[in-house]
Amino acid sequence: MAKSAASRSLDPAPAKTRTAKLIKAPVDPSAVETSLPHLDRVIHERMRLGIISALAVNDSLSFNELKKLLQTTDGNLSVHARRLEEAKYVDCEKSFEGRMPKTAYRLTTAGRKAFERYLDHMEALIQAMRDH
After folding, report:
1. pLDDT tens figures, 66-85
2. How many CA atoms lie within 13 A of 108 on its CB side?
3. Is the CB of residue 89 less than 8 Å from the CB of residue 107?
4. What spatial distance separates the first Cα and last Cα of the chain, rounded to whole Å?
5. Which of 9, 39, 53, 62 is most exposed by smallest CB count within 10 Å?
């Protein structure tokens, strides 16, 4: 009788694997340190990078505009925007239009400088990889 797909996936028999031998050239740790700059972990996270990037090319964006642009949830956007606020990279202005609350974000001077440093770091990393 043939085994079902579910029972085959539960078989404890080891799968045949092949291993490749990697030959690594010696790496000078000091060269790595200078060619791979430390990235700003606040900006480097995908959602925060998206927020910073969007604000870098717009004077300001509302919460709903960012949410739609980044295709994310209210909770996800608010957590990441708050982290950028805590780092002083983003300013948040809350107001009301009639009875509706409105939240607008803009990039601070410190945020713009941090983003420029981040981009410089990424360019250095790309260049180091191309030079390798």
Report:
1. 999 999 999 999 999 999 99
2. 14
3. yes
4. 56
5. 9
Number of residues that this document lists for the chain: 132
Locate the DSSP E strands across the chain. 61-62, 90-97, 100-107
3-state SS, residue 4: coil
Tell me, yes or no, whether 32 lies in a domain: no
Strand partners, 62: 104
| Confidence tier at 128 by pLDDT (50, 70, 90) | confident
28-42 pLDDT per residue, tens:
555 445 545 578 999
Structure tokens at 49: 């990078």
Strands (E), 44-89: 61-62
The parent domain of residue 115 ranges over 37-131
Contacts made by residues 109-117, CB under 8 angstroms, sequence distance 24+: 111/52, 111/55, 111/84, 111/87, 112/56, 114/40, 114/42, 114/43, 114/52, 114/87, 114/89, 115/43, 115/52, 115/53, 115/56, 115/89, 117/40
Token readout for 122 is 């990424």
